[in-house]
Amino acid sequence: MDDLLSEFLTETSESLSTLDVELVKLEQNPNDPDILSNIFRLVHTIKGTCGFLGLPRLEAVAHAGENVLGKIRDGELVVTPPAVTLVLESIDTIKYLLSELEQNETEPDGNDADLIARLNHFADTGTIMGADAAPAVDSSAPPEPVVTDEDALQALFDSTEVDPEVDEAPAQPEPPAPAAAPPAAAKSQAVAPAKAAKAQAPKAEAPRGEAKESSVAAQTIRVNVELLENLMTLVSELVLTRNQLLQMVRGKDDSEFTVPLQRLSHITTDLQEGVMKTRMQPIGNAWAKLPRIVRDLALEMNKKIDLQMIGADTELDRQVLELIKDPLTHMVRNSADHGLEDIQGRRDAAKTETGTVTLNAYHEGGHIIIEITDDGRGLNLERIKAKAITNGLATESELESMGDQQIQQFIFKAGFSTAEKVTSVSGRGVGMDVVRTNIEKIGGTVELKSVEGRGSTFIIKIPLTLAIVSALIVESGGERFAIPQISVLELVRASSNSDHSIERIHDTPVLRLRNRLLPLVTLKKILGLDEGETTAEDVDEEAFIVVAQVGTYSFGIIVDRVFDTEEIVVKPVAPILRDLSLFSGNTILGDGSVIMILDPNGIATRTGEITVGGSQGVEGKAKSDSGDRETTSMLVFRAGGSEVRAVPLALVARLEEIDVENIEYSNGRPLVQYRGKLMPLVFIDGGYQMKAEGRQPTLVFQDRERTMGLVVDEIVDIVDDVLNVELTSDQDGLVGSAVIDGKATDLIDAGYYLELAFSDWFGHEDTGGEKKRVLLIDDSPFFRNLLTPILSVSGFRVIAVENADQALELKSRGEMFDAIVSDIEMPGMNGFEFAESLQNDAEWGETPIIALSSHTSEEDFERGRQVGFSDYVAKFDRDALVSTLIQTLSAV
Amino acid sequence: MSDNKALVPSREQNTGLDLGGATKDFVTAYIGKQLFGLPVLTVQDVLGPQRITRIPLAPPEVAGSLNLRGRIVTAIDVRKRLGLREKENSEPGMSIVVDQGGELYSLIVDQVGEVLSVPNNAFEQNPATLDPRWREFSDGIFRLDKKLLVILDVTRLLDFTASVKQAG
Asked: In CA terms, which of A21, A593, A609, A879 is 20 to 30 Å from A808?
């Protein structure tokens, strides 16, 4: 049976039993508003749920019943035994319908017009129609439901409303005085079947009485959550006691307790699992509201959003579930609102119109991982930087030295919203910091990965349950402490004669770990346990380092000794110790001693290293690699010869392996069927020979609907290197040669091959209308060759020149452009000077100029703005360039 | 200072010092030579020397925490709380466990004595000349035959925020 339905049945049969009791109480105390409103609420809930589940017959009865109750509640009607009987009758009908529903999963045929008519009649007039028949009528009695002519009923209503004075006495049992002939006739029609039903009533009654105890309801019981919590606490204590006992027996070889204790241990484990299970709920419960939220949002924001939910049946503790519900909702909203572009934005960025938000939940080693991914615009680093400066969170020079990931971490700061405007859904800046705090409160972590233009992924890692956590026990300064396993990455043993030794920068200990410097904190010192006797030497001699991670910041904690890991029950510390941020709680270990649980978060904050939540650690490497020089990701491959060739990775859509057998020929040109379309294949040169069989690696270039495959021999590597084209080439298909990863490498001209595959690749009209003319100024032939095809396929007519002088020459010839894209560093007149010279120019003064540079610091940006650049785009970011161009041009 | 109005009701509630009836029962304890009394109903347990886990960075009066039948109890060094010097001999002290707002605290004293029933008419207010720190924690004095019994106000003894405020 449908989960929803069975839940509804369980819940409703409970409500109905309550209703029976309450109604009888009401009869005795007709004026008790509490009872009345309780009854009203129950019926109302039933009605609401029926409507939601699409059970019209039930809903109609419940609605009519609710009407009557509503009038009674408002004091318009008086509670009398016949009135209660009438309402009870509707309850009985609901019960009957429910039992049918339980057996057949659908409502029985027929309707309850008679009952509803009488309920409505009572609601309207305060008199009971056919009261004498009422108790036994059970109008809905199966198997031949009463069918009533609607017109006749309507007439009946009319007639009764015509004679209100007759109906005055509220409790008066029977019917209005004889009215006009036609209504009376109608009435007899209506009553007659009811009377007929009466005869059947005794028969019908019996099975219904049995059906009362719903079997679905009997399979589940409702238990107070508090009781479960209590059980959980007790089990936790039991586990601890068991551990204690085990520890005591461990030392003794053959104790008479060993066997029974083993049994106790097993049972305790089973019991613990059992009780945990009672608290487990599928994470889908927390997601139930999301499709609706996303749908509404999509409408409001004019977006097309596809919400994918994977792993909805992943179970986790209900306490955890409750706590992550709001953060999750918030994050999905954020992704849909800020993350995804609107339809136009996505078109401009050459993406499919429909944006995707993916929720993915799965178990991983005692934790639940929830990923929230969108394929939207990603985080805008420049905007985050600007905002960080405005909010005084960091200075320009601090930002300068931060890695991208660190900068992204700013969104977890309080009051930080980069949304340009506050929408009804988000942008109020009370978001991510709260999300992070809430998740960290339950011992979880949030990570963020974002690529501008490609989308963002938030990864939430939370413990399965809060009650019992696994912790590493360490010793420092003669005291033991527990560190939650979730934040421990690894353990390193450092000593002066091993690979790992602690080094010092002006008394600050650091550790070289896999080519990066790990900041270290000495636990003894931050806990104030060193008592002045610490000497640098004894620490350095031999130490254990617990590498911990908080967000994306990792650091090492120096401890004296490392013991075992142990399952612990986290207990809050006494109120007088609450402000010690270094501890997240305390617990009792297997040996009965009390131990404090360290909070890696608190330690990280305490050491003052992180203001943003991400610091030296992980990002250090990327930073030192790139230095001042911009690197490009290059795909290195071999094709037709032993020499290596390369193409900027940004141009390659995908890497595929194509089975040679699948290659077909059309008009002498090789093609493969690829993703439901034909994809032409091109070779690196005319003499290229494909393999006779097997699979051939292929670089797929894509632009909108068109794809092209460049067949290669072997994909060698992806290399991040500073791109410096040293030799230019006149040969078709080659841009030139550069030293990549220490080897001379030919850079291929992707544009050439695109044209080879589709002679009209650059000529096709896709936007309709006249193409915008863009002037591209760049001294590097490589970039001209790289950018020209990119801009062309995006629908611009590109004229490329080498330097500012050539550009000015075009100007003097009276050429006009819709936009200018200019490099900054150029021999002769540089980009700033060029822009400045145009600022008050008669012809080109109005033309927007976009700066193209590897230097995108805030100062450069500022200078660029002063000299009249309308925007600033990082080199190598083709998506940003295209979207900026489109934005700029549409703004003009 | 000790007449802080806000604290008066809670004092009455917790110590039960309404002085109704003829006598009052107190658990007595020694710190040094001074006899102290705690209303008997506030006391949950009396413990011998316990293994106590130190809590780094905690206020100095917090001796640490200990395990009392599966519950974690915060141990308070009453000596330090009252501004007394460290004990000369290093004999481990005894503890009186009290419940404060659902949390258990163990008050470490030198020695726990018997339960005394003292007549209400032996009650005296704190002498005005009493050390302010003591006046803060004392609810009054009972005159016994040979000694004076200082009644400790558990609520205030454990209210670290208030004492910080008053100290500053």
From this structure: A879
Strand, coil or helix: B53: strand
What is the DSSP code string of A78-123?
Answer: ---HHHHHHHHHHHHHHHHHHHHHHHHSSPPSS--HHHHHHHHHHH
User: For residue range B16-55, what is the model confidence (pLDDT) as tens digits?
Assistant: 455 556 888 999 999 888 899 999 988 988 988 888 888 8
Spell out the SS3 assignment of B85-141: CCCCCCCCCEEEEEEECCEEEEEEECEEEEEEEEEHHHEECCCCCCCHHHHHHEEEE
Contact between A50 and A59 (Cβ < 8 Å) = yes
pTM, whole model, 2 decimals? Answer: 0.43
pLDDT tens per residue, range A194-243: 444 444 444 444 444 444 445 665 677 778 878 887 888 788 778 878 87
Q: Where are the alpha helices (DSSP H) in A659-747?
A: none
Yes or no, beta carbons of B57 and A527 under 8 Å apart = yes
Tell me: do A231 and A199 sit in the same domain. Answer: no
pLDDT at A212: 46
B101 CA: distance to closest CA in chain A (Å): 10
pLDDT of A591 over the 60 cut: yes
Chain A / chain B CB contacts < 8 angstroms: 58
Q: Look at residue A472 in the predicted model and tell me its pLDDT.
A: 92
B53 touches chain A (CB under 8 A): yes
Average pLDDT estimate for A765-793: 69
Going by C-beta distance under 8 Å and a sequence separation of 6 or more, which residues neighbour residue A807? A775, A777, A801, A820, A822, A834
- Residue A477 belongs to some domain of the structure: no
Contact list in B for residue A595 (CB cut-off 8 A) is 53
Instruction: State pLDDT tens for residues A568-579.
Output: 877 778 878 877
- In chain A, positions 520-539, which contact chain B (CB-CB < 8 Å)? 527-529
Nearest to A319 by CA among A443, A488, A447: A443
Q: Would you call the peptide bond into A781 cis, given omega within 30 degrees of 0 as the criterion?
A: no
How many alpha carbons lie under 13 Å from residue A224 in its C-beta half-sphere? 4
Which of B53, B58, B101 is facing A593, going by the closest CB pair? B53
- The full length of chain B comes to 168
B65/A586 touch (CB, cutoff 8 Å), yes or no: yes
Q: Which structure tokens are listed for A638?
A: 């071999």
Distance CA A437, CA A613 (A): 12
Assigned domain for A762 exists:
no
Q: Which residue has the tokens 């001294």?
A: A779
Q: How far apart are CA A348 and CA A340, in angstroms?
A: 13
Within this chain, do residues A340 and A434 fall inside the same structural domain, yes or no? yes
DSSP symbols for A607-644: TT--SSS--HHHHHHHHHHHTTS-EEEEEEEE-SSSSE
Q: Is B103's CB within 8 Å of A574's CB?
A: yes
Is the Cβ–Cβ distance between A674 and A656 less than 8 Å? Answer: yes
Q: Which chain A residues are Cβ-neighbours of B102 within 8 angstroms?
A: none
CATH number at residue A207: 1.20.120.160
CB-CB under 8 Å, B57 with A528: yes
Domain count within chain A: 6
Looking at the structure, do residues A306 and A351 belong to the same domain, yes or no? yes
The reply to whether A271 and A313 lie within a common domain is no
| Residue that is written with structure tokens 């990119």 in the block | A790
Which candidate, A764, A781, A774, A747, places its Cα nearest to that of A882?
A: A774
CATH number at residue A239: 1.10.287.560
**Whether residue A796 sits in one domain with residue A736:** no
Domain shared by A9 and A144, yes or no? yes
Distance from CA of A320 to the nearest CA of B (A): 24
Q: Which domains does chain B have, with CATH numbers?
A: 5-167 (2.40.50.180)
Average pLDDT rounded to a whole number, residues A755-775: 61
Q: Per-residue pLDDT tens for B132-163? A: 888 888 888 998 888 899 999 888 888 876 55
How far apart are alpha carbons A442 and A465 in whole angstroms?
A: 9
